[in-house]
Description:
- The chain is about 35% helix and about 15% strand.
- By secondary structure, the chain is an alpha/beta fold.
- The strands form six sheets. A five-stranded parallel sheet has the order 11-14-17-10-18. It has a four-stranded mixed sheet with strand order 1-2-4-3. It has a three-stranded parallel sheet with strand order 5-8-9, sandwiched between helices.
- The protein starts with a strand and ends in an 11-residue tail after the last helix.
Amino acid sequence: MLVKTYSSTVFGIDATTITIEVNLGIGVNFFLVGLPDSAVKESQQRIKAAFKNNDLKFPGKEITVNMAPADIRKEGSVFDLPIAIGILAVSEQVVIDKLAEYILIGELSLDGNLNPLKGILPIALQAKKEGYKGIIVPMENANEAAVVAGLDVLGVNNLMEVVKFLNGEEIIVPSVVNIVAEFERMVEELEVDFKDVKGQMNIKRAFEIAAAGGHNVILIGPPGAGKSMLAKRLSTILPPMSLEEALETTKIHSVAGKIKGEKGLITQRPFRKPHHTISDVALVGGGGYPQPGEISLAHNGVLFLDELPEYKRTVLEVMRQPLEDRCVTISRAKFSVDYPAGFMLVAAMNPCPCGYYNHPDKQCVCGPGIVQRYLNKISGPLLDRIDLHVEVTPVSFDELTTDVPIEGSKEIRKRVEATRKIQQRRFHERSGMHCNAQMTQNDLDSFCKIDETGRTILKTAMDRMGLSARAYDRILKVARTIADIENSEKIESNHLAEAIQFRSLDREGWAG
């Protein structure tokens, strides 16, 4: 007798449906084929123990389990439940009528309970795409899968609940999440706010420009000037995520196993802050079985690298290609995986090892050439890819103690949203292009035309500061964003001048 159940495996951030074929033959062997890894092969012992502890009979015959397609490597413990149900069905302990309608996902404990798993959202999306009626998942994963509308998500606690459901002895109420209401409720919640930041008006202006155009930023200033505090609040002035962006972000975090508890949908833009000891694989993704790295977990949000020169140079250099392409490709001998990496980079650093170079009050104690060697830890090609270089100065006592009302994140966000709408109209025919930072060379030629005065200003800046062609493009993009903030059709000379001011690290003699 042959029975088929259906499960799924995640490859990259997308899922592939796996057919579990279970056949009974003559003998007492157990064969598991279809490129299973060690975790899948060990399912036999978990299933046997779960059957025994729940008074279910493990057939005393030859059992052959085939996992098709056979040329895709199967990894993890997600197949315990479909294999167990297949064995029960082929031995006539479970009715097979509903098996073709549901995707089965779950890792069995020895007592038959189901443990939570990662990567449930891509599996649920694929199940809906392929027309399955529903998906049976561990109870802890039910809210995550229920984000997908039009799919019956049955959350179960143990194997016996699934058996009784398939036999018609028990009804399982599908989990329901009103995704639109949940999204609208949570999208406006802010954990931090720019109201907390006193002074630093020039930095707030730079962050507004960065958020409005999706530009990368580096902050240079002494310890305690507020670099980290400002960076943490950048995501609060970015436009709220669309429902499509929220689903895409949640998929990545689901694959990485970062979704915990009751929360099924990520509605706030991610803010990732990896420590400077991070490896290049942990940053961009990879491993024996590739997983998304920090740059992908920051997709649609902010990646904050504090104390930038302390990161290993190899770690920083691997970001160069993702910063340009907004995706990262992890290649192996037999396959490659693409992960999205459309993040805003915010970096912070001290101007020198002691931290007080160019400080208005404190004396720098670094010796000759030390400052330059410290800055040289960051390569020119990486700095070229950062649009705004912002000098952060200490906040004065008067600014700290002022009672003047401070503009909050919601007010700044309104201006950012208005600017982004201008860009959306500009790029409405370009799929996947949302902001000025994504403009190509052809777009620069079309949308960033400057007059003779602006050309003279830009030529003078390039000659004096020794700017590269990439830095030239970045200045034009920033100037375009400044013009959009002021609702100006043309890039004026003052827009260019302000954009050039945000190239601090390109200035000759900045570090002595």
